[in-house]
Design a protein that fits this description.
274 residues; alpha/beta; 5-stranded mixed beta sheet; 5 helices; 13 strands
Length: 274
């Protein structure tokens, strides 16, 4: 079968849920219904074990299909790799990124597989790390079901690439929120400044505001009276910040610019509220 005619599955893989959208290729590609399944966490196994089992069930009849997985930031660790003009080759970049990840996360980084964003010696980049065993299990699952695993994309990387053309200004704040997780990145004149990937334990608005204020202190020489933050939070559609907090949200998902179809959506709480 020509790759141009392969059916395709796009998956969002998170601790509490797996979402899958399948497209049938042809002269006029057709998107099938979206599938979503909740996963109960097992405290005695890795957080990715239950969603892996769920994905196993969801792709049982998918032989010959291309699969792209977007992986929740719960399963990824990030670090800014500062500009290094002396780095000349991919091998040097990987060695430096691995050294930096060990400095940030310790020896546990040795069990991770690393990937780098597009690298600019003058602007630096971002290193993302995923447990090697998780990547191995995903590849084994694809092989078992005769699925072609085309790529595994960290959620932050995919969302940033999706929306970065809309970012304007010398200083950029970009926040990505999902269920129980907040990622916040900052850039100044195109240079990566900081990246934060943290669990959310309390109210989403309060967590976002606290993270913004803390990052502004750490990575900004000065703060404008009102700073703007680009926000992608499809699971928190009603999120808003107080009008006098010093921050203004610029929502990235609008009626004219929708998110990729497999990205997570808001889940209704038992009382009917998001």
């Amino acid at each position: 079968m020509s790759p141009l005619w392969r059916d395709q599955m796009r998956v969002f893989f998170a601790p509490g849920r797996v979402e899958l959208v399948r497209s049938y290729r042809g002269i006029k590609p057709v998107q099938a219904a979206r599938l979503a399944a909740a996963c109960e966490r097992d405290p005695d196994s890795p957080a990715w074990e239950q969603p892996l089992r769920q994905l196993d069930q969801m792709i049982v009849d998918a032989a010959g299909v291309d699969m792209i997985i977007t992986i929740s930031n719960d399963f990824v660790r990030y670090a800014v790799v500062s500009p290094q003009a002396q780095i000349l080759t991919p091998a040097e970049l990987y060695a430096y990124a691995a050294f930096h990840m060990r400095e940030v996360y310790g020896e546990r980084a040795g069990a991770w597989t690393l990937s780098m964003s597009a690298w600019d010696p003058c602007n630096g980049g971002v290193c993302a790390a995923i447990e090697s065993i998780l990547l191995q299990r995903l590849n084994e699952l694809a092989t078992q079901h005769k699925v072609r695993l085309k790529s595994i994309v960290p959620y932050l990387s995919g969302a940033f690439d999706q929306w970065c053309k809309r970012f304007k200004g010398e200083r950029i704040w970009f926040a990505l929120m999902e269920t129980g997780r907040l990622c916040l990145v900052s850039l100044s004149n195109g240079v990566w400044q900081g990246i934060r990937n943290q669990r959310m334990l309390h109210n989403a608005e309060d967590e976002l505001l606290a993270a913004l204020d803390q990052e502004a202190i750490l990575f900004s020489a000065r703060k404008e009276a009102v700073e703007q933050v680009y926000l992608f939070a499809p699971e928190h559609p009603e999120l808003a910040l107080p009008g006098d907090c010093g921050w203004r949200i610029i929502p990235l998902q609008t009626e004219s610019m929708l998110a990729p179809s497999h990205y997570p959506l808001a889940v209704a709480a038992p009382d009917g509220k998001n």
